[in-house]
DNA sequence: AACAGGATGATAGATTCT
DNA sequence: AGAATCTATCATCCTGTT
């Protein structure tokens, strides 16, 4: 961060429009001595509204619980009313920022501590960002505190709750941390949901936040998940307020102002969000998608990283391997990484392994030296993969790789439209037509199968590109084949990462495969020549389970395959039972559903909290249990 | 089973601002 | 010149309706 030289940078917070002059000198905490022009009057009013019976007292408590001073909260509620908590939070953060701008360096740490951040956290943030750039420090602190507030799974594990009822223990552990709360009077915690709700409100979250989180995370979500969700949401909201410069918000009680504000609010918010994310990215550049996307190395490129340092908590046994789409909504990968022991994701595009792109992130604790690829190498270009298309391939279609293989394919109507668009021309079509056709070809992965004729890939061809044996998915409906394949691993890519296991487990491995799909991990290990001793495969789709079972028999596996339809079935008891029977798991593989993360989902791109993608937390839960049980049995 | 249906984020290049 | 901003381009393990 290039530094503004000192804390006196009032320019950073250029708010002086008429409406905002009144707050320009306002400071949030008793640590700084700047006083308000009419502070007394405001505080007087605020005092009055602090009574326990006041309708706003709950919301005041809420924000105080977040670390803001009572006076400041009261003032903001005075000015904005108590309904729009979003607006209140933004304003509070603006106040914080503005007071920062006028506070001196020596008071910097005190100031942040006064906001409710811990001293060591502040010192760290100041060290990292320099003293000058206060808004950067605030951002960093917010990031830290969101990270800290969320309770990573490993902490639960570390604290010794291994059995299937650890969530209950966790609840008990927290339920008496705070005795002063008025929540009891309206809640009677006899159901699990209400218990969680009560618990969350006691932790300082609002009832609304808690309910939303529970709705979004599902009824079985743990407190850890819920707090994580709320903190993420709070951080996003807080983030909105951190742009003091150009997009100034009118700040007054003027009704028209507010109305206008609301009209532009969404647009404004989006713009802010974008900018904040840009700045947050600068903070944790660790999660930038790499270019070229080769992870720690691919067999076809010379660039390679041989060493990495895993966080202590991540080191096995068991080994684990988690996969999901690389281009997930912002923050998703940092959350995933946080829940998986802070292991840095390895982003790899399968175009370095086969003829189709497939940008994915992998988080694993496997060694990364001495990897080797599956042989023979699969075709690496479209022409190699589909030699027959070469004859019809026009010179102006310069593709050499296909795009990501998806679950749907182009309609016949579209290929027909393309044919018609091209038929009118004897020579090269005009540029506009070329562009249209190329756009569609890229979008739907069309290949040339005749004069002016494009077609989507056949399921067989997709199987081949993804590294599965021919006819692996044969026998189910065409639509299902596309769907199952589109949701699968690219076998060569995964095998390259898993290849390091071969020397370590010459006798074979016990595999726990979550969200197995059509068995990409199993196929990869088999093709690597790593014997599969016992495989427990969890897969919701019966069609897919049958495919894996059928492959298992066709390939004359000697081991045991156990399939479980529902990931919820795999609780602590069941796992203990399975693990004592097999002697533990060597590897836990899983790629949790991505349909709430991917850009191609028009309707429910809800991020990790989405209905399906939230199953990621089950992966964490189960991995944690396995880790715990393994450690205990050693 | 076929079909239609945008939104998000990354990136590169051009343009303007400092 | 270099930073900041704008613009165009491209890719994306898909869902709801018919």
Automatic annotation (TrEMBL):
Residues 306-633 form the SAM-dependent MTase DRM-type domain. Residues 54-95, 103-144 form the UBA domain. Keywords: DNA-binding, Methyltransferase, Nucleus, Repeat, S-adenosyl-L-methionine, Transferase. It is an enzyme of class 2 (transferase). One of its GO terms (biological process) is methylation. One of its GO terms (cellular component) is nucleus. Gene3D superfamilies: DNA helicase RuvA subunit, C-terminal domain, Vaccinia Virus protein VP39. It is found in: Nucleus. Pfam families: DNA_methylase. GO terms for molecular function: DNA (cytosine-5-)-methyltransferase activity; DNA binding. Its EC number is 2.1.1.37. PANTHER family: DNA (CYTOSINE-5)-METHYLTRANSFERASE DRM2, DNA CYTOSINE-5- -METHYLTRANSFERASE 3-RELATED. This is DNA (cytosine-5-)-methyltransferase. It comes from Durio zibethinus.
């Amino acid at each position: 961060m290039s530094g503004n030289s000192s804390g006196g940078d009032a320019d950073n917070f250029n708010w002086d429009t008429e409406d905002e002059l009144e707050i320009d000198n306002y400071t949030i905490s008793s640590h700084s001595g700047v006083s308000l022009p009419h502070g007394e009057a405001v505080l007087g009013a605020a005092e009055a509204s602090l009574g326990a019976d006041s309708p706003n007292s709950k919301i005041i408590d809420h924000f105080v619980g977040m670390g803001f001073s009572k006076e400041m909260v009261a003032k903001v509620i005075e000015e904005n009313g108590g309904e729009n908590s979003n607006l209140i939070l933004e304003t509070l953060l603006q106040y914080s920022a503005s007071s920062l701008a006028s506070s001196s360096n020596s008071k910097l740490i005190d100031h942040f501590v006064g906001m409710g951040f811990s001293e060591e956290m502040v010192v760290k943030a100041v060290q990292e960002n320099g003293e000058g750039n206060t808004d950067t420090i605030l951002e960093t602190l917010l990031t830290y505190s969101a990270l800290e507030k969320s309770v990573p799974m490993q902490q639960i594990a570390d604290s010794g709750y291994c059995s299937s009822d650890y969530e209950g223990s966790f609840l008990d552990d927290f339920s008496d941390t705070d005795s002063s709360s008025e929540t009891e009077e309206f809640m009677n915690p006899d159901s699990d949901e209400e218990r969680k709700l009560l618990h969350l409100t006691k932790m300082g979250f609002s009832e609304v936040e808690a309910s939303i989180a529970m709705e979004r995370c599902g009824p079985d979500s743990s407190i850890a998940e819920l707090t994580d969700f709320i903190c993420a949401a709070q951080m996003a909201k807080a983030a909105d307020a951190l742009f003091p410069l150009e997009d100034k918000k009118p700040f007054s009680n003027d009704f028209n102002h507010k109305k206008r504000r609301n009209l532009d609010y969404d647009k404004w918010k989006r713009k802010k969000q974008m900018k904040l994310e840009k700045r947050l990215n600068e903070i944790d550049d660790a999660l930038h998608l790499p270019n070229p996307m080769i992870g720690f190395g691919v067999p076809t490129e010379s660039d390679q990283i041989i060493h990495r340092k895993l966080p202590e908590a991540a080191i096995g046994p068991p080994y684990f391997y988690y996969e999901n789409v690389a281009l997930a909504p912002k923050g998703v990968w940092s959350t995933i990484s946080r829940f998986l022991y802070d292991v840095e994701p390895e982003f790899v595009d399968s175009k370095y392994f086969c003829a189709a792109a497939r940008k994915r992130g992998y988080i694993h604790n496997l060694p990364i030296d001495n990897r080797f690829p599956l042989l023979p190498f699969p075709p690496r270009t479209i022409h190699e993969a589909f030699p027959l298309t070469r004859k019809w391939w026009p010179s102006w279609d310069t593709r050499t790789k296909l795009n990501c293989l998806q679950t749907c394919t182009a309609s016949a109507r579209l290929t027909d439209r393309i044919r018609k668009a091209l038929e009118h021309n004897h020579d090269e079509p005009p540029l506009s037509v070329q562009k249209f056709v190329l756009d569609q070809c890229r979008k739907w992965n069309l290949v040339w199968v005749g004069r002016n004729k494009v077609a989507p890939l056949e399921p067989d061809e997709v199987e081949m590109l993804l590294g599965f044996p021919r006819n692996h998915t044969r026998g189910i409906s065409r639509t299902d084949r596309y769907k199952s394949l589109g949701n699968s691993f690219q076998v060569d890519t995964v095998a390259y990462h898993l290849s390091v296991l071969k020397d370590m487990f010459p006798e074979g491995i016990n595999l726990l495969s979550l969200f197995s799909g059509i068995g990409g991990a199993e196929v990869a290990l088999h093709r690597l020549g790593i014997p599969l001793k016992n495989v427990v495969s969890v897969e919701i789709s019966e069609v897919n389970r049958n495919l894996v079972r059928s492959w298992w028999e066709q390939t004359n596996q000697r081991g045991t395959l156990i399939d479980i339809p529902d990931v919820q079935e795999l609780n602590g008891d069941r796992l203990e039972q399975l693990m004592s029977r097999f002697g533990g798991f060597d590897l836990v593989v899983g790629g949790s559903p991505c349909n709430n993360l991917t850009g191609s989902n028009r309707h429910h791109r809800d991020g990790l909290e989405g209905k399906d993608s939230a199953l990621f937390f089950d992966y964490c839960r189960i991995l944690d249990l396995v880790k715990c049980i393994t450690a205990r049995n050693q």
